[in-house]
Amino acid sequence: xxxxxxxxxxxxxxxxxxxxxxxxxxxxxxxxxxxxxxxxxxxxxxxxxxxxxxxxxxxxxxxxxxxxxxxxxxxxxxxxxxxxxxxxxxxxxxxxxxxxxxxxxxxxxxxxxxxxxxxxxxxxxxxxxxxxxxxxxxxxxxxxxxxxxxxxxxxxxxxxxxxxxxxxxxxxxxxxxxxxxxxxxxxxxxxxxxxxxxxxxxxxxxxxxxxxxxxxxxxxxxxxxxxxxxxxxxxxxxxxxxxxxxxxxxxxxxxxxxxxxxxxxxxxxxxxxxxxxxxxxxxxxxxxxxxxxxxxxxxxxxxxxxxxxxxxxxxxxxxxxxxxxxxxxxxxxxxxxxxxxxxxxxxxxxxxxxxxxxxxxxxxxxxxxxxxxxxxxxxxxxxxxxxxxxxxxxxxxxxxxxxxxxxxxxxxxxxxxxxxxxxxxxxxxxxxxxxxxxxxxxxxxxxxxxxxxxxxxxxxxxxxxxxxxxxxxxxxxxxxxxxxxxxxxxxxxxxxxxxxxxxxxxxxxxxxxxxxxxxxxxx
Length: 523
Description:
By secondary structure, this protein is an alpha/beta fold. It is about 40% helix and about 10% strand. Helix 3 packs antiparallel against helix 12, helix 8 packs parallel to helix 9 (about 255-265) and helix 13 (about 415-430) crosses helix 14 (about 455-480).
């Protein structure tokens, strides 16, 4: 493809992308496919001779789109959002064209310089203390990482470096391996699974702190477990506080947690992956109280600020800890400003770095703070409306307080009814949701996030939920009227399986074999 053909095909592709996004409501949000579906659609081996772009592009609708879960759809309510926008895509196009690798300042000076400025912009937008910003003579600053999971790992490794160095200074006879074997990290039992993964990679013990009735980690319980571990000869060193949990968007009590960490000399990392975007609105910054005593914080503009994946904002007070954990400096990566300018390779796990700040810069400038605030508030208002629909139907319940754009709901009764509802909703493909477990209750998560979502979309989604719930409950009633023996006697556990009874799909949910039982899941 030469430059002239690129001009023509590029413009056609932009038209296709714009049409795709503007007409995305017409597409089934969740694909009706099974693993391996693509094998019959494309050859087993790569072509020997190059193909024309026309031939390649025909396969987008034939091969790609039928298997896409359409994350930009206003009927996509699973997980947390992963949004895009036109200025973000334009920024990515320019970044791809430049294609610099910004591992050091010298490898592409503007890649580093723009990231520093834009991260200061964003830090000020969410109300971070100055200690987290790039400033003359300061050791803090912001960096764009790939994911919140990576930020969690980076902060844990930085905290580990600080802890090992501290104990080596206190106990010169101890070695790193002995100290590392005693290190203990802490998080809420509602924290994201990436915290567990970070502890596995860091080779440290992870303690889960039981949350309170609001699914929040509190300082007193954290301190109690820390004291118990100290008495057992272990070394507490790192805590992850979650602002906006995956299950219910609950908020740990940051003020209490950072106070404990500050007094006990533990690194406190704040994971605000989804909720952090909302802090650009002053009314939501109450959850940030206590952040001045934290050591690092991260959130995903790629979730709710319409900057498409990947783009995760991370700030640290002490960049020297990152240097200590990640600094390697071979001669071929040195330059005349080494030590004077920031080299982001020392702030991250990979060596190389994409020019991500371009798309963030474009989005902030194009929407402005006011435009982004309007987007956040609109999502919250639509979530409130959906919550009112759920509360208006006595067959449903909301087992956890709604925060921001996430509503968790379930059918009143046993877990199997809600699980059947969730599975059938997804199998129909008109909306997409995922479940969560909140203290033994199976719930459906409904996240409102798309900039294209309207009240009509939310009404349509609620009608779909009610329609499927009616089917599920009618089928359940039919079965209960016909049953002559207790339901528990009709689903027999496999040999050696003593788990509790639930339903789902073609068999009982926990692996029980069905004996002439009527399926309520529609499978």
